[in-house]
Amino acid sequence: SWTMEGIIDQKVDQIRREVGSRKVILALSGGVDSSVVAALVHRAIGDQLTCVFVNHGMLRKGEPEMVEEVFREQFHMPLVHVHAEERYAKMLAGVTDPERKRRLIGTEFWRVFFDEAQKIGDVEMLAQGTIYPDIIESGARKTGGKAATIKSHHNLIPFPEGVHFDLIEPLDHFFKDEVRELGIALGLPAKMVWRQPFPGPGLAIRIIGEVTPEKLAILKNADAIVREELDAYNQRLFEETGDRNSEHACWQYFAVLPDIKSVGVMGDERTYQRPVIVRAVESADAMTADWAKLPYDVIGRISSRIVDEVEGVNRVVYDVTPKPPATIEWE
Ligand code: XMP
């Protein structure tokens, strides 16, 4: 609409004035906010912006490819894809405590990111997809300490010693639905703009216990099936009701891999393999949530596809706990 175009023009002017001729860097995660801010800042200053995508190996199936496809192929942005998969795998070996996992992954993320900023050289600004609710949540503006802290998955992490960037946060007056609208107007694909919330530490916190390559492979494959089936389910609901909201009725859904094995049977053979937990919730804001009352045939299809298609899995269970008392994630 003309209003969205008007807002974009205004933001573009503002960003150009703020940035001048300086170089800007942005940590691209493939999430909604960082993707929209990347598209917007790129529209304003073109190749003065470099996006750094830190691939820690714990993203969902197809996500790194989508980031490449959208930002490199479609938008032709300068994009640095940092393959940190092995670095992370080594770092996480033997780590089982959820908080320790989160901390290690977050700290390492910024270390890798600032290393890349150094390599690019003369970077003076950091663009961030901070949106209005983030500011309310963190209270970060209370002290006016804009350049002192950066948003990191609900936490504020100080810049390393001697590092300084001026922040540019062009979405900081927008709500989530406005950010999505902006993203569509900027030409981002719907599946990116409507991406579900996904934790910064990624699949690491959906693997209970130690993260190993074997467990990661199982979870990626099982999770892809859950998402495929429930994307289709949401789509069917939308077609039946014509209501856009029901397209996202089942709000967040994914697979979780617990750290146990159970006995099963396959042909004449006893198996001793992993179960997969399916988590699907309805929620408005993630503060509270209810488990999704999925039709049995949908649950059944997810189950049979997972045990048929994912090697090493002999059982599927469905999590029927609301939040509270459970959380949406398992770690
Ligand atoms: P919980 O598990 O606390 O999750 O009910 C609430 C919502 O937040 C997401 N989540 C995260 N998002 N970084 C994020 O950006 C994180 O570390 C993180 N942990 C949980 C979760 O997926 C759910 O939507």
UniProtKB/TrEMBL annotation:
Tell me where the signal peptide lies. Answer: none
Metabolic or biological pathway = Purine metabolism; GMP biosynthesis; GMP from XMP (L-Gln route): step 1/1
Look up the record and report any one GO term of the cellular component aspect: cytosol
Q: What is its EC number?
A: 6.3.5.2
GMPS ATP-PPase domain residues are 2-195
State whether it acts alone or in a complex, and with which partners, per the record.
Homodimer.
Report what the protein is called: GMP synthase [glutamine-hydrolyzing]
Source organism (scientific name): Olsenella porci
Q: From which residue to which, out of the full length, is covered?
A: 199 to 529 of 529
